[in-house]
Specification:
Elements: E1 3-6, E2 13-17, E3 24-29, E4 35-40, E5 44-48, E6 54-58, E7 65-70, E8 76-81, E9 85-90, E10 96-101, E11 107-112, E12 118-123, E13 127-132, E14 138-143, E15 149-154, E16 160-165, E17 169-174, E18 180-186, E19 192-194, E20 202-204, E21 210-211, E22 214-215, H1 219-224, E23 237-242, E24 248-253, E25 258-262, E26 268-272, E27 279-284, E28 290-295, E29 299-304, E30 310-315, E31 321-326, E32 332-337, E33 342-346, E34 352-356, E35 363-368, E36 375-379, E37 383-385, E38 387-388, E39 394-399, E40 405-410, E41 415-419, E42 425-429, E43 436-441, E44 447-452, E45 456-461, E46 467-472, E47 480-484, E48 489-493, E49 499-503, E50 509-514, E51 519-523, E52 529-533, E53 540-545, E54 553-558, E55 563-571, E56 574-582, E57 593-594, H2 603-611, E58 632-634
Antiparallel strand pairs: 1-2, 3-4, 4-5, 5-6, 7-8, 8-9, 9-10, 11-12, 12-13, 13-14, 15-16, 16-17, 17-18, 18-19, 19-20, 21-22, 23-24, 24-25, 25-26, 27-28, 28-29, 29-30, 31-32, 32-33, 33-34, 35-36, 36-37, 37-38, 39-40, 40-41, 41-42, 43-44, 44-45, 45-46, 47-48, 49-50, 50-51, 51-52, 53-54, 54-55, ...
């Protein structure tokens, strides 16, 4: 039950620390190197390195003390034990300052963050917990390991945590996001495998070094071999959009963050933090070098896309900011709020140039004309400034590609087309049976697509005003009636509805998303539904096509916290939809999925997929692919 001290240069033993009466489970130096703390089966001891004498015996745990850790300043010691608690002790007095409870298994490992404001712990309950050292409150629990978490460590910057477990894996975690970034485990021939998502496998070699029998991995070296690290939003995704060149996807979430994704690999390039409430609008400048995020915290942040630095914080709105738009030249930004106002901002200085008033109710949408000479705003007061269209709420507005027309969608169940020069109403499209909440022009400007709360999408001929097709396939959610005995009353609950519509870059197909947790792909010429992406774990909040016209990429933002990119492949009368990447590990239905061209699929996963309805034989089971390039689905997707 002794602790031996060795000289590192000569490897000679220079002393022995005697005093424990049980097995020693943990030993750690203080930050200045003058003290040693040790934990055992019966107590925690503190030793003077110079004299090798025990200074203090700390007791309080009711079982084995598995781990001890000094705070960065050396004034506190954290200990974790068999009694499922973490205790924070004052080095000066030996008194217990906090007892952290919450783990349901022994606490096997603990470490302070570099700043000392947090502690991370790993437990036999297979979870990792993050604690506030000031209050002793657990503010996050990370799950993913399937056995005891035996080791835990912060990165030097404090932005990541690595955990080792008896499940033979090492996991990397973003300490501000819940899921694991990546995990590493031993496999045949000394290789290490990284499983970022269930459908992706990447191989890379470890460093040719071993320490105490454990392999060591060089993460930088792994990344050069296409190691993809992804974080996911911790709440529902409200907005998604592509950068002007189609190389990047941005997502805004209810978790108050915006994330920038590599459109090809799905790797999260940056997580932009700073807002204190939900992100309701995200938009790139036309040059793609700037990015704006508008939030319910009544601020807009302008970000440098390359560096992730926030250039300006635009303040002045007295209501929740609902939409924002860059001018075509990128020198101005327009924003609107639920306090009936619009504001124009100088992008270079962040100064507010103008405050536009006149709407009588919240302003829901704002758009610049193509030449930047006009600004269009749609309000719940029933007006499109400076165009007037009745008394019902305006839900959406859109300029035609030529800039000579404006389309508006309204609560009065109509779509109206306006002449931007004269303000005259050219057409009123009628036929929808409920609120029309979305409208968009086709790439050529000869058609308008509208989405309705009744779950339908309609295509309209701009020249004649006739309805070309009615896409009827989404299942609108029904209202429910609830009897409350305590109030002796009946409540009718109307669930939120939405119907999003977007043309592909070449205008041949239309994608629509709805509260029925599906995205449908429609043929513009025939009006037929060509594919259904189904079984999302929540409603679809936003969809967007990549602006590139050579390949049809579609990105979806969902209530299930996911951002997913899909490739839509037009193949004659058929339409294949391929999942390129997903930000989450949430499962999708695999009924009718084809695994014919999947590479690197292990036998176990092949059997599981077939058990759930997938068909076909995988291509070359022994080959490991570094992307999803050959996976495809027909009609319904994984």
């Amino acid at each position: 039950y002794d602790i031996s001290v060795y000289e590192t240069s000569s490897r000679e033993k220079i002393g022995t620390l005697e005093g424990h009466n049980g097995a020693i489970m943990s030993v750690v130096y203080s930050p200045d190197g003058n003290l040693i703390a040790s934990g055992s089966s019966e107590s925690t001891l503190r030793w003077d390195v110079e004299t090798r004498k025990c200074i203090r015996t700390i007791t309080g745990h009711s079982g084995y003390v598995y781990c001890v850790a000094y705070s960065p300043r050396g004034d506190m010691i954290a200990s974790g034990g068999d009694d499922k608690t973490v205790r924070l002790w004052s080095v000066e007095t030996g008194e217990c300052q906090h007892t952290l409870t919450g783990h349901t298994g022994p606490v096997c490992s603990a470490m302070y963050s570099p700043k000392g404001n947090h502690i991370v712990t790993g437990s036999g309950d297979m979870t990792i917990r993050l604690w506030d050292t000031e209050t002793g409150v657990c503010f996050q629990t990370l799950s993913g390991h399937t056995d005891n978490v035996s080791s835990i460590v912060y990165s030097l910057q404090g932005d990541m945590v690595a955990s080792g477990s008896e499940d033979k894996t090492i996991c990397l975690w973003d300490v501000e996001q819940e899921p694991a970034a990546a995990s590493y485990q031993d496999i045949a021939e000394g290789l290490a495998v990284s499983r970022i998502q269930p459908e992706e496998i990447y191989l890379f070699p470890p460093i040719k070094t071993t320490l105490c029998g454990y392999g060591m991995w060089n993460l930088d070296y792994a990344i050069t071999y296409s190691l993809v690290i992804r974080w996911r939003h911790s709440s529902k995704v409200l907005r998604v959009t592509y950068s002007p060149n189609g190389c990047q996807v941005a997502s805004g979430s209810d978790d108050r963050t915006t994330q920038l994704w590599n459109a090809e690999t799905g790797a999260c390039r940056r997580t932009l933090r700073g807002h204190s409430d939900s992100i309701w609008s995200i938009v790139y400048s036309s040059q793609g070098d700037l990015f704006a995020s508008a939030s319910r915290d009544r601020t807009i942040r302008l970000w440098d896309v390359e560096t992730g630095i926030c250039r300006h914080i635009l303040t002045g709105h007295n209501g929740n900011i609902l939409d924002a738009a860059f001018s075509p030249r990128g020198d101005q930004l327009a924003s609107c709020d639920d306090n009936e106002t619009l504001r124009l901002w100088d992008v270079r200085t962040g100064a507010c140039l103008y405050v536009l008033t006149g709407h009588m109710k919240l302003v829901f949408k704002v758009k610049y004309s193509l030449n930047g000479n006009q600004i269009l705003s749609g309000s719940f007061d029933g007006t499109v400034r400076t165009l007037t269209g009745g008394e019902s709420k305006i839900r959406c507005v859109a300029y035609s590609p030529q800039g000579d027309m404006v389309a508006s969608a309204s609560d009065d169940k109509t779509v109206r087309l306006w002449d931007t020069e004269t303000g005259a109403c050219r057409h009123v499209f009628t036929g929808h049976t409920d609120i029309v909440n979305f409208v968009t022009y086709s790439p050529k400007g000869d058609q308008v697509a509208s989405g309705c709360f009744d779950g339908t999408v309609r295509l309209w001929d701009v020249e004649t005003g006739t309805c070309c097709h009615i896409f009827d396939g989404h299942t609108p959610l029904k209202s429910s009636v609830v009897w409350t005995p305590s109030l002796n009353a009946i409540f009718i609950i109307y669930p939120p509805k939405s119907s999003l519509v977007a043309y592909s870059p070449n205008g041949s197909i239309v994608a629509s998303g709805c509260d029925d947790c599906t995205v449908r792909i429609w043929d513009v010429a025939s009006g037929q539904c060509r594919a259904v992406i189904q079984d999302f774990q929540g409603k679809i909040n936003d969809i967007a096509w990549s602006p590139t016209s050579d390949v049809n990429y579609l990105v979806t933002g969902c209530e299930d916290r996911s951002v997913r990119q899909w490739q839509v492949i037009e193949d004659g009368d058929q339409c294949r939809v391929r999942l390129c990447w997903s930000s989450t590990n949430e499962e999708l239905e695999v009924k009718d999925a084809s695994i014919q061209d999947v590479r690197g699929l292990c036998q176990l996963n092949e059997e599981l997929l077939k058990q759930r309805g997938a068909g076909g034989e995988p291509y070359n089971r022994l080959r490991i692919s570094r992307n999803l390039g050959d996976r495809s689905w027909r009609n319904s997707t994984e």
